[in-house]
Structure prediction request, 254 residues.
Amino acid sequence: MAYFYDLEYRHNVQDVRFYLEMARRTGSKSRILEVACGTGRVSQKLLEAGFNVTGLDLSAEMLRLAEKKLGESSEEIRQRGRYVQGDMRALDAALGNQQFDLIFIAINSFQHLRSQADQLTCLQSIRKHVAPAGRFIIDVFNPEDKDVFATDGRVEYAAPLYNPLNHSFIHIFVSTMAYPAQQKRVHHYFYDETFEDGTVKRTVSLFHLRYLYRFELQLLLEKAGFSIEDLYGDYDFEEYGEGSPKLLYVCRRG
Ligand SMILES: C[S@@+](CC[C@H](N)C(=O)[O-])C[C@H]1O[C@@H](n2cnc3c(N)ncnc32)[C@H](O)[C@@H]1O
Prediction:
């Protein structure tokens, strides 16, 4: 699964420019933590740009790919990068009392926490690791986007992917079920790897995302001890407004 995820998202760089700019604003020597870093899609780019980055993720499989990218980098980059396994609801267990000048959780990963209680626990855990003058950035889907809950679970073709490892093609189909009263969507990703002899190998990834509305997330952030510095609606630093695809909060320790 991690391999398919990486293949699908490795060229997704829209948000990378945003985090590079925020890292620059925080300072070239800043200590950065990416929570739920996955296969290192964003963290590796920050490392290549000269920043000190720690990536944390629950999945050993995702981290293996992130570590592979780091291992193939120059000695100088390897010195500045580190990946650790841990749960975003209990960062102390993985990070002790380390603090960071910039912590972020990218591309809706926070929504993998399926209850409000878990989401608050996570924010409280993160806050302890933000240095006194540091920042925290969280990026989630905007549930006000009109398409979010207008989905009925039917399977749709998403994209073809070329797999350079064995020269097969992977066709991705997605089924999304919406539960607006619970602020949830359930996604099935079907990765159909097709071979020249006509056989197909299907790998299925199932995950739930819990959505937060603007002021629910703001209240949770404030309850966890953060103060809000900015709210953007996309990665181009556009102010949040009607129809914004994202809720992108930039916070201070409070
Ligand atoms: C959508 S991927 C995003 C990966 C990466 N941030 C990126 O931008 O490509 C979501 C990641 O969240 C991680 N994750 C889910 N629940 C987690 C938890 N409780 N603690 C830490 N990581 C978690 C998954 O293992 C997965 O790597």
Remarks:
- The chain has two domains: 2-143+212-252, 152-210.
- The mean pLDDT is 96.
- The helical segments are 2-9, 14-26, 43-48, 60-71, 75-80, 91-95, 116-127, 214-223.
- The radius of gyration is 18 Å.
